[in-house]
Amino acid sequence: MRPETYGLVAALPDDDLPAYVYDLPDLREHVRTIRAALPDRVELLYAAKANSDPLILRTLAEHVHGFEVASGGELDHVRATVPGAPIAFGGPGKTQQELARALDAGAERLHVESEHELRLLATLLGDRTVDVLLRVNLPVDVGRVALAMGGGPFGMDPVQLDRCLEVMDSVPGVRLRGLHFHLASGLQAQPHLLLVDKVLAWAESWARGRGVDLREVNVGGGMGVDYTHPPRVFDWPALGAGLRRILARHPRLTLRIEPGRSVTAYCGWYVTQVLDLKFSRGHAFAVLRGGTHHLRTPAAKQHDQPFEVIPDDTWPRPWNRPEVRDEPVTMVGQLCTPKDVLASRIMTERLRVGDRVAFAMAGAYAWNISHHAFLMHPHPTFHHLDDDTGTPVAGDACARQTS
Fold it and tell me: For the chain, which ranges sit under pLDDT 70?
């Protein structure tokens, strides 16, 4: 945590807790590092599903080639938040209304998931044209990964692509821009490069066999984030160097990537407070404000969320302050379920009721994937640090969200 962020976290009033704190200068520096590592023929889109906070989107808009959205709601939100930014619309199960909204909004790309979806899109075109990428469910071995995206409901098997080409031949307004592959998430740089190499070789071979002028391949995101070692950031320079070597063998291709978690995870903190400390069957539990209904990531990924303790030396009560020292502690929330665990049996030097706990790496797939309404606890507040003086952004971005 940068000193400026620490100062903001420590200064938050108790009534503002729990709170999300987003370090926008840190995010800006991180995305600049990513862009600097990537070759010229690699276009960087941000997957808005990871965190669609308006100020995060506006910060990223200066540094990315566009945004990937996966629903009509995300489409409307991104278009309203960063007007004019290029948008690629993907995801399975697009409704007719969503496809129409994408056309009306001028989405730069549509990632088509099936022959049926392509035919539905064709009925909505009128005299308009649209660039599409066909999403391919390529049968390759991705090894042990956090999420294997191939072989499920995403995209189409290669044998179905020829039917799509026949449909496009009869609908001049649908232009095949290229192919889309997102086969795995949680890959580090070298496994990611091996997968990209296989994908591009297959894509160009397929295109040559069918006389397709292939200009673009999108390999999705999936860059790994290591929650057990926060300083171990995905190796973007290694990825960039490897992509340069691969693209040298494909001189006509533009490569697109759509990372989300690996872009914004590091800039966010979920800040809460110890409400109670208790022992159950000899084990220490810290009961915190909030919980996994605000920060679902550790429950969803089955990991311990990394954290820092922010000491608070004020204690207005007449009884002794509950505390633990040099003790493994399980951090739990306020929900009536034993699954409301943010970190389990983590050795803690000192922790007291009233101290604050700042959970790191909470900038992606955190608040936006959480079950907000469960038990109807208050929603967190949101704060954004946007300069190096420790001054938060003013205005409604810092207000408590209630919906």
Answer: 141-151, 387-403
